[in-house]
Amino acid sequence: MKKSTNSILFDRNTNEPLFETEVNSIFYSDAENLDYLMDLCYQEMHEHDIAVKCNNENLFKVIIRKLGRSFVRDLKDLNEFNDSNLGYYIAKKPKGNLQKESDLRVIKEIYVEQWSVGMEGDSFAGNISVEISKNQFIIMPFSC
C-alpha cells in the first residue's frame, strides 16, 4: 500500500484508490504479519552482526601476526565504547586528523574523523584510522 501526497491510499496490487472501510481491513491484515516481519528484520540484523564480528576478528588475527597482540589490544581499547556494528577495513589513506595518543601501550598516533549525531549533540560517530604499515591503515567506524 502506498500513500499519495494528498493522503489518498492506494491498493498495493492494483494501484486503485481504496475506500475507508477497505483501508481499515488492510491495516488489520498487515498488522497480523508485523510480528513475522519484525522477526525477519531481527534475524537479518543478527546475521549482519555475526558477519561483522567475524570480519573484524579475522582482520585482528592478520594484524596480530604482523604487529603483535599488544597492538591489537590497543586497537580494541580504542573501540571500547563503540556501539557501531560496521566492519573494519584496510585503506591506503587515513580518514580524519592526526592525533597523538598517550594512553595506549604501542599505538602512539591515530587519525580521527568525527561528527555529532542525534538531537542532543552528545552522541558521536566517525572513523578511527591507525597505520599498520606503509600506506596501509585499518579504518574502524565508531558511534557512541
Write up what this structure looks like.
This protein has 144 residues and is α+β, with helices and mostly antiparallel strands. It has one domain (34-143). It has three helices and seven strands; from the N terminus they run E-E-H-H-H-E-E-E-E-E. The strands form two sheets. Strands 3-7-6-5-4 form a five-stranded antiparallel beta sheet, covered by helices on one side. It is elongated, with a radius of gyration of 23 Å. 12% of the residues are buried.
What order do the helices and strands come in, and which of them pair?
Blueprint: E1 2-3, E2 9-10, H1 20-32, H2 34-67, H3 69-78, E3 89-91, E4 97-100, E5 109-117, E6 123-133, E7 136-143
Antiparallel strand pairs: 1-2, 3-7, 4-5, 5-6, 6-7
Helix pairs in contact: 2-3
- What's the total count of β strands? 7
Count of individual domains:
1
Rg calc = 23 Å
Per DSSP, the total helix count is 3
The main sheet comes to: 5 strands, antiparallel
Terminal CA distance? 36 Å
Order of strands across the main sheet = 3-7-6-5-4
The gross shape turns out to be elongated
**How much is the average pLDDT?**
81
Q: Helix-strand pattern, N to C?
A: EEHHHEEEEE
* Proportion of residues in β-strands: 25-35%
Low-confidence stretches: 1-7, 20-24
Q: Given the helix and strand composition, which structural class is it?
A: alpha+beta
Q: Which percent bin holds the helix content?
A: 25-40%
Attribute tags:
single chain, 144 residues, alpha+beta, two-stranded antiparallel sheet, 40% helix, 27% strand, elongated, disordered N terminus
